[in-house]
# Entry
Amino acid sequence: MIFDYETLRCIWWAFLGVLLIGFAITGGYDCGVGVLLPFLGKTDDERRVILNASAPTWEGNQVWLITAGGALFAAWPIAYAVAFSSLYIALFLTLFALWLRPLGFDYRSKMPNQQWRDWWDKALFVGGFVPALIFGVAFGNLLKGIPFHLESDMRMTYLGDFFGLLNPFALIAGVVSLFMLVMHGAVFLQIKTVGEIQQRAKKAVTLATSIALSAFALAGLWVTRLEGYHITSTVLQNGASNPLAKFVKRSEGLWLDNYEHVPALWAIPVLVFVAGGLTIWLSKKDRPGWAFVSSSVAVAGIILTAGVSMFPFLIPSNISLNSSLTIWDASSSHRTLQIMFWATVIFLPIILTYTRWVFSVMRGKITVEQIQQNTHSLY
Amino acid sequence: MISEGVIELSRWQFAVTALYHFLFVPLTLGLSLLLAIMESCYVKTGQQVYKEMTQFWGKLFGINFAVGVSTGLAMEFQFGMNWSYFSLYVGDIFGAPLAIESLVAFFLESTFVGLFFFGWDKLTKNQHLMVTWLLVLGSTLSSFNILIANGWLQNPHGAEFNYQSMRMEVLDFGSLLFNPDAWVKFAHTAAAAYNTAAAFVLAVSAYYLLNNRETDFAKHSYDIAAKFGLVAVLLVIVMGDESGYSVGKIQKAKFAAIEAEWHTETPPAAFTPIAFPNQETMENDFAITVPWVLGIIGTRSLDTPIIGLTDIVKENRQRIRNGIKAYSLLQDLRDDKHDPQLLADFARYKPDLGYGLLLKAYTEKVTDASEQQIEQAAKNSIPAVAPLFWTFRIMVGCGFTLLLISGLTFFYTVIRKTSPTWLLKLNLYAVPLPWIASEMGWFVSEFGRQPWAVANVLPTFLSASSLSVSQMVMSLIAYIALYSLFLAVEMFLMIRYIKQGVVYHTEGEA
# Structure
């Protein structure tokens, strides 16, 4: 299968979405579990139950994020460069939080000392909380545009600062992403635990889902008044990747353009509310497996909503509109996209197959009794 | 233009993060293979001691693995965060092996590492063994992909500059993947990792044997590591020689700098074991030479010359002049993208565009460079000689010391069937050697490519992101502080678990 450049750019936009959604659905529940750890686990044994629920698989889950980063680098190099260098401090904080995860999981229970364990519990909380929040804040800022400028040799200058990222709209987006992952993590814990922890997880599902959906609704209303972006010059979908070859305008409500042209897209945000509502209902009815499916749909829907609203923009610039990056001018070469297409099409199914197998081996509940019997073979 | 300070700090930060990461990677890579060998012995013989070994060394593997993953994350993020111009300039090629690394290797490694630790009771013996081997496969493929990416920086074939997108783009993916330079370096690095793991297991086992603890366990471990270690160190040296030979052909400046060869000698060139190289005068202030040896080792012939640095500088001066032409044509091309004459001229000078970019350190416009600036750029187009000369010798020194120790260990283990106390002490105290060698090897490879981030294509100073000095100071301090803390915690846990010993672990009680 040889695709033309335009098709491959669309495919790679979709692949990036698949990888981000893959991370949110798998690595995302681990973030949620990290945030819930201090609230749902009252005693050391209970906390170990919560940790061991996600311990065997969290490492593989996190690779979705690494792969999304790698795919961004390979398929959208200039977007990778602009996003990562302009969000320097935010990403450093994310990195810091992510460092705590492998260490926290692996080291926490390696010492009997309670103080040591409390410290690592805090670290694991930070490791879940900070990335979950910052990813949302980053998306919020993408919708608002990032203050960067490209020179003729494509060197990027960033003219904002870290605190500029913490604007009200972006913070609401942060709340959406934080609580959607807490919701997802709580549903996961409801599957994996029994008794009191499970009851607490059930309460957390309702609370987190309600907050996530409210914040999502608020962000949606805000977007109608937010300045969106639009390409005004002729778009060369098959042209060389040069972001400076186009003209862009900005005005209020433009992010709703795609929905106006293709009304069927409204189904995506609507689906978020339906799936969110179902998650609460299924969780209450003690059907956590199905609740996990529906919370996955809600998570995917939230990410898709942001992506579809911005299409074809990847990173709009709010100080130098024409520097904005879109899928038509920020991709890798035709050849690279084609090669990476094959790599993904071949390996992604293999990954899904063995990941499924690992999850099926590790299925089943974790109980306090198991934890007490296995002081050393579990975390 | 980005400030000098930001460039310097970015370089320091990359070196710090890479060197820290590289403290953990060789042990992960090497120990995973040793674990798989131990577990294979368990499955084949059914002896419990091999299972204990897999689990105990596995625990230490896990402690090390966690920091390796943490510090590895920063590596992937860092290209975009700190080297954004590099990322967009060569991402079309360089990004691919990194993305493939995630898809093919890191997913495999990370998915099965959990099952390795948590799957003992849930899998059959054979299934668990398969999981361990998949873990080995994952970590090996991972290092392979990283070295393919690195190999392209050293020897950037299969790509060319596209004036429309202002960056390098892939021409031939095959030559990226089958870059002989990268394959040799992969074998050298992997063998070094195996040797690191062997030295680690030998040292810990020697500690037990010296203290008369866990004797049976320690003897079995020592035995495997002794055999494994000798094979590994031999492979390191053979592949190191092969890698040096390949550098001599492709990266002539790096090779000449390592050997402090300022002038092209009549072949075969003399070898200089000790020298005080002087970058200013482009001479050695003091040198001991051994006739013929370098020519024979470096070129494997009697009549191939080794090009000296002064001649390389002279050649680069011409390439810089061509680079100015390429740069000026590129400016014209922007105004008139379709003029066939311009395109033809640009195609001719394009291979030296990177040399033109070297002048950006002295003049923003490039085309207005003075003779003096060209001279300066040419002189700085070779790496600093003294640091390379010495780090290379430290690496090789460690390598041959390890060969001696591995040889003795093998002799006493396999032939004499018992190891004397002095040898056990040697095994214990020599444990830092493979790490020192690896760190030096990284330095030789990366510092030897300077002033380039991508050899002959993109200078390092242009590659950095336009950040502020304060951001860089903050992040560099944070990296150093946090990584040191992680290293301290890791060592603390390692030592604690080693001291607790094996029995504690397998009894399964606190």
In short: The CA atoms of residues 35 and 129 of chain A lie 6 Å apart. The mean pLDDT of chain A is 95.
